[in-house]
């Protein structure tokens, strides 16, 4: 009978992760994609993703938007205001939260997320000095199932992808990436863009061997943590 155990536990394993499933922008809720059951012609701002299983390497093509390539709608957001991402479930409490933007420089239909144009607007890694703890950004999502980030007030208006990424580090030296993207139209009178040294490409914003990616929170001797990729640009 031992061979039936994997089958019995398979549904639990499938459900033991999570993804952004809606957004709150300007007091309005924008439903996202639920995963595992593709909806033809869904009228959403989120780029549809196939599932919320983890991506295991930082160079995987799915790292851009978890496989999502388009969405029929976008949401208008004023520079200087917040975008809140909402998760229906999240189960891991060790690892950073990172929020990125990508300037489309044109219509969303031609916005593929390629090139060195991604930049961070928010992140939270570890606070304190104990890696094997719940003092991580992802622990706050585990608790609240939402994350709110400010769009830089000085940001140049235009079409952008906003990308929420959770990096789960609960398995030693086995990072798990969970990214999703949505389409937003930033408004305002700003003129600022991030400097070149804060721009990167996704996938491959860091090496798989990066100290912020390949982490052993149990046997490692580290007492601090730096999230992978460039620093946050606040405008």
Oligomeric assembly: single chain
What's the shape? globular
Instruction: Determine the fraction of residues in helical runs and give it as a percent range.
Output: under 10%
Strand content: 25-35%
Count of DSSP-assigned helices: 2
Low-confidence stretches: 1-15
Give the helix/strand class: mainly beta
- Series of H and E elements: HEEEEEEHEEE
**In total, how many beta strands?**
9
What is the spatial order of strands in the main beta sheet? 3-9-8-5-6
Describe the main β-sheet briefly. 5 strands, mixed
Q: What's the rounded overall pLDDT mean?
A: 91
Radius of gyration: 18 Å
How far is the N terminus from the C terminus?
60 Å
Please characterize this protein's 3D structure.
The chain has 235 residues and is mostly beta strands. Helix content is 8%, strand content 26%. The chain has 2 helices and 9 strands, in the order H-E-E-E-E-E-E-H-E-E-E. The protein has helices at residues 5-14, 137-144; strands at 20-25, 28-31, 75-78, 82-87, 97-103, 118-124, 146-150, 158-168, 176-187. The chain has a 5-stranded mixed β-sheet, with no helix packed on it. The chain has a 4-stranded antiparallel β-sheet with strand order 2-1-4-7. A hairpin with a 2-residue loop joins strand 1 and strand 2. It is globular, with a radius of gyration of 18 Å. Residues 1-15 have low confidence and may be disordered.
